[in-house]
């Protein structure tokens, strides 16, 4: 009877994972255009270098998370809360997409100064850095790399905590992007060219912000 219950649970969890995989999307990030736009918009080589460096670090975190995400696809005996593990990793992809999509528009926006762009870039880098730290924590707990012996419940508790924190950073990235873009809208309205700002960033319902 116990074996039957265990088998049913395993099949059910597997079905959930399969269903979720069918819906899951991992964004393909191509930073080359953003790098070129940064170099074109920012005359100071030092500032441009720092921005590109922040972008490269963000992409590094993204790639590490994607590699871990891909590795999870081949794991069948992962803890029961596998769905939250995947959601957590996918939020790194979403945060990176929000960053690259939004900031790519901002560097071509005359309503922002070079110093402001540098500060905005640093803010995004900080959010990605925190997200990367959460991914590292998640990986350590799942693989047991911290040398501690944790029960399934303890592991699930940590997964819940990491998921909640990552969700907060994802929402913060959205909020940060919306507030930054709103500055351009205000400045554009004062100059009488709000239509140009709207054309640059698109509809407020666009997912990247």
Automatic annotation (TrEMBL):
Q: Which InterPro entries match?
A: DUF4141 (IPR025415)
Which keywords does this chain's UniProt record carry? Signal
Signal peptide positions (record): 1-24
User: At the top level of its lineage, which domain of life is listed?
Assistant: Bacteria
Family annotation (Pfam families): DUF4141 (PF13605)
In Swiss-Prot or TrEMBL terms, this protein is called DUF4141 domain-containing protein
- Which organism is this protein's natural source? Parabacteroides goldsteinii
């Amino acid at each position: 009877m116990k074996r039957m219950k265990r088998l049913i649970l395993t099949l059910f969890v597997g079905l959930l994972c399969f269903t979720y995989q069918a819906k899951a999307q991992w964004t393909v990030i191509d930073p080359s255009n953003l790098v070129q736009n940064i170099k074109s918009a920012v005359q100071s080589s030092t500032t441009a270098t720092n921005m590109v460096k922040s972008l490269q670090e963000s992409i590094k975190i993204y790639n590490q998370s994607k590699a871990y995400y891909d590795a999870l696809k081949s794991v069948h005996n992962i803890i029961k809360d596998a769905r939250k593990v995947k959601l957590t990793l996918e939020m790194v992809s979403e945060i990176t997409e929000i960053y690259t999509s939004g900031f790519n528009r901002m560097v071509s926006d005359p309503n922002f100064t070079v110093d402001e762009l540098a500060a905005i870039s640093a803010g995004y880098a900080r959010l990605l850095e925190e997200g990367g730290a959460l991914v590292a924590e998640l990986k350590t707990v799942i693989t047991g790399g911290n040398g501690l012996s944790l029960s399934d419940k303890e592991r699930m508790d940590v997964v819940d905590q990491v998921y909640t924190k990552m969700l907060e950073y994802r929402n913060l990235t959205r909020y940060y992007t919306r507030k930054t873009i709103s500055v351009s809208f205000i400045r554009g309205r004062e100059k009488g060219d709000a239509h140009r700002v709207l054309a640059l960033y698109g509809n407020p319902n666009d997912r990247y912000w």
